[in-house]
Amino acid sequence: MSVFSSLILVLVFAALAYAGGLAGSSRWFMGVILPYTAILVFLGGLSYRVLRWAKSPVPFHIPTTCGQQKSLPWLKWSWLENPQSKGGVLLRMALEVLLFRSLFRNSRAQFLDGPRLRYGEEKFLWLSALAFHWSLLIILIRHLRFFVSPVPRFVMGLEAVDGFFQVSAPQLLVTDVVILAALLFLLQRRLRNPQVRYISLFTDYFALFLLLGIAFSGVLMRYFFRVDLERVKEVALGLVTFSPTVPAGVGPLFFVHLTLVSLLLIYFPFSKLVHMGGIFLSPTRNLANDSRVKRHVNPWDYPVKVHTYAEWEEEFHDKIKAAGLPLERE
Amino acid sequence: MSEALPKHEELVQIRYDVPRNGWRSAHVDFRKGTYSYSAAPKNVQYLGMANPRHWRPTDKDWKLPPDWKQIILRGMKERLEKFRSFRLFMDICVRCGACADKCHFYLGSADPKNMPVLRAELVRSVYRRYFTASGRLFRGLAGGRELTEDVLKEWFYYFYQCTECRRCSVFCPFGIDTAEVTMIVRELLNLVGVNTNWVLEPAANCFRTGNHLGVQPHGFKDSIDFAVDELEELTGIRVEAPINKKGAEILFVVPSADYFATPHYYTLLGYLALFHEIGLDYTFSAYASEGGNFGLFNSHELMKRLNNKIYAEAKRLGVKWILGGECGHMWRVLHQYMDTMNGPADFLEEPVSPVTGTRFENARSTKMVHICELTADLIHNGKLKLDPSHNDHWRVTFHDSCNPARGMGLLEEPRYILRNVVNHFFEMPENTIREQTFCCGSGAGLGTDENIEMRLRGGLPRANAVKYVRDKHGVNLLTCICAIDKATLPTLLEYWTPGVEVGGVHELVANALVMKGEKDRTTDLRGEPFPAKEAAVHA
Amino acid sequence: MPGISPQTQQAISERWRAAIIQTYPGLTAEFLRQEKDPFRNPVGAALREGIPCLVAELFGAMDPGKVSQALEGIVRIRAIQDFSPKQAVGFVFELRDILRDVLRAPEAPLGELHKRIDEMALVAFDVFMRCREQVYEVRLSEARRAEGFRKRMVSRDAGG
Ligand code: HEM
Ligand code: SF4
Ligand code: SF4
Q1: Among A234, B307, B366, B474, which is disulfide-ready with A292 (CB 3.0 to 4.6 Å)?
Q2: Considering only CA atoms, which of B362, B397, B396, B399 is closest in space to residue B377?
C-alpha cells in the first residue's frame, strides 16, 4: 500500500510540474517561489533540528566500544574501534561518515554449509548505500557549474573523471548510472527483503521515489530530451544572485526536476533524511572511551535520595556488633 | 514408486507471505514463561516510586493512574530534552535493517518485534505522533501511532525482552543503541508504576542492606568467613579477608552473587587465594557489599542511588583506590556512569598495583580497576607461580559478557589470563565473541525464574556457538566474568548444550596458582581431583 | 524402501523444511530460510541439519537413536517458542502431503511410510514432553544453585 501511494504521490508532483512547465503560467512559481521557499525551509528546518539535538545534553559517557580498550601498555589496543583520544574518535567518525564502517561490519562466518553460497546481502547494502551517497555528493558538486560562473576548476576536473567512460555524445557520467542503479537496488531491497519490508514506512518509500524521480528526470534531460543549458544556467544564476528570471523555453522537464528537488529540500528537515546531521552527534560513536580517565560531567545532575552509611549502621547496629565488625558509633 | 518427478526447482517453489497488517496493531498475549512478574508494592513503596499496587501483566486493567497518558508524554518530553541519545535515536534511524538480525531475542524467538529497529519503532511511532510536525499533521502516514494502553502493554512486553546488550549498536551505521532506548522506556514505564519485581526487589534490597540479595552485615561476614574456611580446607592456608577495615589500601567490591551462589562462589575463593598470595592490603565492605546495580535496569536515578555507596564507603574507609570483581553490568556502571554520577573521586589516588608498581592510567579519574586488569598485569610481570596443568580437566572457552565487551572493551585481559592458566583454550566462532558477542539472554533484569522460556529463546544463539566448540573441541567449561552469566548460563546450557559447565576466570587462576606454603593440593576449588594428581594415583 | 533417489529425498527435505519454516511469521520465515550462517541463524541451522537426517531415516532404517536425535534438534527449539504442543510437533504430519505430492503415488504404497511418519510423530511428542519437563528441571537447578552455597553454610552450622 504505502509503496504505491508514495509512488503515486511523487508521480502526481512530477506531472503537475510538467503540466505547469508546459503551460508556462506557473513557471514563476516553480522557478522562483518554490526554490526560494525550499531553500529557506531546508536551511531553517535543518538548523532547527541540529540545534535541537545540540541543545539536548549528553549526560552520560556512552560510547559503544567495538574493540580492545586501552589499558595495560603491552596489550594490543584497538585504537580505531575503541578510541581513547580525540584523534581516534575523529578517525572513527570519518570512517563512519565516509565509508559507512559499521554497515560494513557484517562479517560473514566461514562456516557456511550447503553447496550454494549466498553472499551476504549486507555487503550489498553497504556497497549500494555507499554508491548512492557518493554519487549523490559528486552530482551535487557537479551542479555547481550551473550556479557559479566561471565554472571552478575542480568541478570541471570532477566532471572529466566522472565522464571517464566516454561512450556517448553527451558524455556518459558514471555517477548517473551508479546513482540510479544504487537507488533501484535499495528500493528492491526494501521490497524484497522481508525484514526490511516489514519495517518500512510510507516515508521510506517516499524518500526513495523522490530521489529516483530527481535522478531520473535529470538523466532524461541530459541524455534524451535535451534542455537549453544556457537558459538553465540563467535560472540558476538568477537564483543565487537574487535577481531571479525565468526565461521562456527552458523546457517542462526542467521544471519537473527543479520541483522535485525543491520538494526534497522541503521534505528533508521533517524526515529521516536528517540522519546526515545526526551521525556527527551520535554519542555512541563520537565519544572517546575515556570515561575512567576523565570525568564526564552531567549538566543536569541532581542530588538523589541515598541510604547513607550512618543510616545503615543505625539500622543494623546490633548485628554489626554481633558479627564483630567495627562500628563508627558504639 | 514412480520416479517421474517434477523438476527440483519446481518442487522447492515456495511462497512466503509477509504479514499484511504490519506491526502497528499493538496487542500482546502474555503467555506464561515469557514475562516477569510485576513489582510487589512493598518494594515500589520502599524505593519511593510511583503507583505501588497489586497488579499482574495478564490483568486486563493494569490500574494505571487516570492521567497516565499525560504522565508518559510529559516524561518523554523531559527525556527528549535531557538525553541527546534519545532525541537523536528517535530521529535518525533510516530503517535500513542492518540491525534487524543482530538481536539474540529475534534469532531465538522469531518474533519480528524483537528486531532492534522495530523494538525502537514501538516508541518512535509514538514520538512521531506527538513530538514531530509531520506526525502531528499526517499521523499514520508519517509513521505515527496513538499512545494507547495496548501500546503501553506492548512496551512493557518488548522492553523487558531487551537485555540492553548493545549488540545492535555495533552494526548500526549511526550507532543507534537500542539499549539506550530501552533504558529510557523503562524509566517512562516506571513513572506510571509499570515495572518488574525481579528488578525492583534486588534494588530495594540493595538500597537497604547494601546488596541485592538482602544479606545483612552478619550474614555477609558469615559468608566470607565460610569461604575462608573452605579455602583453608582446600589449600591448607588460612587467608585473611578483612571487612570494613579502615586504612586498607584497596576497597574490593564484588557482585553479591559471588558470596552467595554457585558457581560464583568458586570465583570468590579464587579472589581470596590470589589476594593472599600477592599480599594485597584490601578490605571488603559490608555496606558497599554489592557492585552490581539493578538500578541500571530501572532508571538513571535509581542507578545513581545504588551506586552512591561505593565512593561513600571508599571515602569513609580511607582507601587509596577501588578494585572491582567479575561482573558485567556492574562494570558498565562503574566504567561509564559512576564517575559522572557520584564522582569526582578526588579523595582517592590514581591506582597503582602494589605488587608490580604499574600505574593504571586508564583508571586515572574513576580510580577503579577491573580485577582482570590487575591479574593480567601480575602475570605479565611474572609475579604469579602458575601451573596450568591443574586445569587440564577443563577444556575452556570464554564468553564475552556484553557490558565489558561493548561498554568498555575489556576483551584481551581475560583471554591473556586464561591462556596463562589453562592449557586447552578454544574460541567460539568469530561472529559470536568479542564486540560481536551474543548475550546470555538473561541480563538487564530478565534473569528470573518465571521468564524462563523467553530466556531460553534469547540464549539460543549463544548456546548454539557453545555447542559448536563443545562438539568440535570437546569444550566442557565456559568461563565468563559476569555474575548474571554465572547465574543464568548454567541453566541455559543445561537445556541447550548439556555437558558444559560455567566458571569464572579467577576460579581457574586460583586452580593454577601455586601458593607459597600450601599443602599438597589434590583438588581444584570445586573439590574435583586435579588431573595430574589423579593420574599419579592411578599409576 | 528402495528406489528413492537422493534428488527426490532432497526435494522432500526442502519442501518439508519450507513447510516447517512457514509456521513462523512470514518475514522471519524468509530469514530462517535464507540465512546460511549457522551462528546467525540457529533455528534455521537446526532445521537444515535435522530434516535431511529424518528423511534419510524415513526411507532407510528408521534407526530409533538417529530419529530421536534429529527430532531433538528441532523440537527442543520449538518447545520453548510460541507454539502450542500440537503446533510444536505437528510439523511431522506435513510429511504426508509432501510425500503424496512428490512421489505422486496412490495412497496404498505409502502405507508403510505413513506408519513411519506416525512413529516419528510419537517420538517427536516424546521429545517435546522431555524438553518441557527439562524446562522445569533447569528452573529447579537454577534455584538450587542460587541458594547452593548458603545451604551448605546452613547445614555446616546445623551440624555444629
Ligand atoms: C554525511 C552525510 C550522510 C551520511 C553519512 C549518510 C549515511 C547513510 C547511511 C549509513 C544509510 C544507511 C544505508 C542505506 O540504507 O542506504 C543512509 C541511508 C539513506 N540516506 Fe544517507 N547519509 C548522508 C547524507 C544523505 C543525504 C544528503 C541524503 C539525501 C537526500 C541521504 C539519503 C539517504 C536515503 C534516502 C537513505 C535510505 C536508503 C534506503 O531507503 O534504503 N543521505 N545514509
Ligand atoms: S541499523 Fe540503525 S539505522 Fe538501520 S534500521 Fe537499525 S537502528 Fe535504524
Ligand atoms: S540491545 Fe541487545 S537485546 Fe536490546 S535490542 Fe539490541 S541486540 Fe536486542
Answers
A1: B366
A2: B362
